[in-house]
Amino acid sequence: MGIRMWCETWDVRRARTAVLVAAAVGLLTRTLIAANVPGPADVRFFQGFAQAVAAHGPIRIYEQQLPGLPVYNHPPLAGWMLLGLNGISEFGISFATLIRWPASLADFLCALLVFEIVRRRATLRTAVLCGTGVAISPVLIATSGYHGNTDAVAVMFALAAAHLLADRRSPLAAGAAAALSISVKFIPVVVVPALLVAALRGGRPVLVRFAAGFAAVFALVWGPVLATVPQDLQRNVLEYAGGSYRFWGLVRFADVSGLPESVITFMQGGGHFLFVLLCVAAGARLAWLRPAQLPGVVAATLGLLLLLSTASGLQYLTWAAAGMFVLGAWEGLAFNAVLGLTAVLGYSGRSAVRWSEPVLYLGAAGWIVLAAGLATGVHRLLATWPGEDPSGRTGRARLSAPRTSQPSGSAVT
């Protein structure tokens, strides 16, 4: 038994090292792009935001008029990040390079995270494939290394919260990670109810620890802004509906189909909250049915949000790029291949917000690939028993309060 455990541990270490090398190569690739390519208009906008944050502070920034810049719709932690990056840039490092480091580093960590999630639910070979897929994903290389928004950071924290809660039995850290995810980008708020439901299914001690971790970080990061400029925060961040472009998904199909303008306006206005509520409800229901499959539930919820999104942005493809590998290797490969080409061609065009005809057709094909991947991934997730991982072994991913000793026969972590 001891020799078998040692061999399994050695195999996991070798597999983890392979993914680590791939993630390092991916990080280097993103860093070289960030250092040598100017990037889209968002890079300039972020630099303007950083200068405004340096002048007014990360709290008062929400009440400022910012001529020449779009609405500052980023949660409070992003302001502190921009303040730090602006300070580092004073040492002679280009801000255009710095703004793409957080997302690139998040991709590095996400590759390792996806490996750890998948290896508990499939073979090591599949886990290596999925982790490596995240590392070299053309979607993530384009959106993190070139675009440089904060979506990848938020997704990484959301998946980390699910992993910590379901696989590591660390509800306090999971709650903190969940709060950090919505403090960088508000998008992962759709997965917070699923995380709470899974914690509830784990028992009162798990729920209390998760809530404590979430509340502590939320109060620390959001508290000063809520106490100082609550209305400005609500208008800029909580009520932000995205742009009015019609390049992606349901809005694109509605536009091409010739639906009345009032319908499209409603979809992009108050109607988009209905799609958000649908994502929240689907995630919470899946978490209730399969709490041990929480990483897959979070991945599916973020993917569904992208599928139903009424806003268009190449950086939004990040929401599902890593998570599709959690749902399945083929789902992840198909999504990242088709929409990776979409992102590369989109960013290579005249503007990231002006999609050419080929990019529009690729985007439509990618939407269909995403829908099919979500369908097969969720079906596979539901095919497991509530306390069982997708490989058919029971008891490896049950939610429970942390224990001081590991039962015999459990997975090597």
UniProtKB/TrEMBL annotation:
Record flagged with keyword Endoplasmic reticulum: no
InterPro entries: RgtA/B/C-like
Biased segments, Polar residues type: 402-413
This protein's name: Glycosyltransferase family 39 protein
EC number from the UniProt entry: 2.4.-.-
Organism whose genome encodes this protein: Streptomyces poriferorum
Keyword vocabulary terms for this entry: Glycosyltransferase, Membrane, Transferase, Transmembrane, Transmembrane helix
Region Disordered, residue ranges: 389-413
Spans traversing the lipid bilayer: 127-146, 172-199, 206-227, 263-284, 296-317, 323-347, 359-382
A GO molecular-function descriptor: glycosyltransferase activity
One matching Pfam family: PMT_2
Residues of the Glycosyltransferase RgtA/B/C/D-like domain: 73-221
UniProt KW Heme keyword: no
